[in-house]
Amino acid sequence: MSMSFAKLDIFPKTLQEFRHRTQTGAIVSIVCATLIATLTIIELADFVKTHDHLTVDTSRGQKLRININITFPALPCAVLSLDALDLSGNDAAGHMPSIKKVRLDAQGKPLDGATESLHPSLRRHLLFEVKHDDSPDVNPQTTPGKPGGLAPAGLLSNQFQKPNLLLSSLLSELLPSVFEDKEAIEEIKKHMGEGCDFSGHIIVNKVAGDFHFALQKADHHALLSVYKSRESLNVSHIIHSISFGEPYPGMVNPLENSHKILSDGSGYFQYYIKVVPTVYEPLGGKEIVNTNQYSYTELFRTTKDIEKLPAVHFHYEISPIMARFSESRRSLSNFLTGLCAIVGGVFTVAGMVDSCVYRIHKATTS
């Protein structure tokens, strides 16, 4: 009975005396075992899959968190300012308490005790900088609300932008006592050779907007008195990171570790960012991450091409399409089927290769 049942064995055994081991067989066996182990690891890594699909973004009234870490190695913090303005005209001055400015020495190392907060009560805010090109001309001889009175230097320098640079320059020569701010000039000279690092985040409305790093408009003439020309105001910068929202596994921020270094002259940087709302649903009932991805294009114009002070602008738009990533686990049966296919397939192919190599070797040596 036992012998009859043994006839059902599809794996007949050969006697040890009839087995012949070869060096080529050992090589094929090692390769076979390595390949099986590698494919098994890949199969395990693919046990959890991430599915993605696109939907229309129906969220309304939400806030957008913009994380920033940018270094300006050639300009001191005393002349730089960060501002943000959205499409509805709302300024983000009250929503950037976490933004810090850190003074850097010539080697890029932080100076002791050189951290400044950009809280509205502690920073010099640029009001409606995005809109200044569209503002109506104001009589430079009078201060609004004070007929006949001379405006202070800061107000005059704010009003004389692109259309009136020549007139502003002429008035600065005719009225040096009005335009020259010795205190501001000395403050700038004191920080010459320093750099500045901005880090933190700002909270804005989830609509299109702009945030930018610009030179203090109130110090326009003081800046030119120290730096002599707009070309000397080097806005070279290193973008360590810029992201919108919270990070998630595998998230890519294309502007990360971007180096924009100007060796000659200066200019006006503009980054146009397309923000895509993103939902990441991790496996195991963990908290869903509502965040954003983005892509960008950039434009650079030199100070010879545009009659503006050098600056770095980031214009962002919100996409109406939302990306959704969700993790799912493969079924155990599917995983075991794949594992058996790997082991059986590799073992079979390796046996065929070993047999062919052995026959060829035997034929050539006989």
Describe this structure in words.
- This is Endoplasmic reticulum-Golgi intermediate compartment protein 3.
- Keywords: Membrane, Transmembrane, Transmembrane helix.
- It is a multi-pass membrane protein.
- The longest helix has 34 residues.
- The protein has 366 residues and is α+β, with helices and mostly antiparallel strands.
- It is elongated and about 110 Å long.
- It starts with a helix and ends with a helix.
- Helix 2 runs antiparallel to helix 8.
- Strand 10 and strand 11 form a beta hairpin.
- Helix content is 27%, strand content 31%.
Descriptive terms for the model:
366 residues; alpha+beta; 7-stranded mixed β-sheet; 6-stranded antiparallel β-sheet; elongated; Erv_N; Erv_C
Determine the structural class based on helices, strands and strand pairing. alpha+beta
Tell the overall outline.
Answer: elongated
Number of H/I helices = 8
Low-confidence stretches: 119-163
Helix content: 25-40%
Biggest β-sheet strands, sense, barrel: 7 strands, mixed
Order of helices and strands: HHEEEEEHHHHEEHEEEEEEH
Number of strands: 13
**Share of residues in strands:** 25-35%
Mean pLDDT: 78
Distance between the termini: 45 Å
Radius of gyration: 34 Å
Pfam family, one: COPIIcoated_ERV
Protein name: Endoplasmic reticulum-Golgi intermediate compartment protein 3
Membrane topology: Multi-pass membrane protein
Family: Belongs to the ERGIC family.
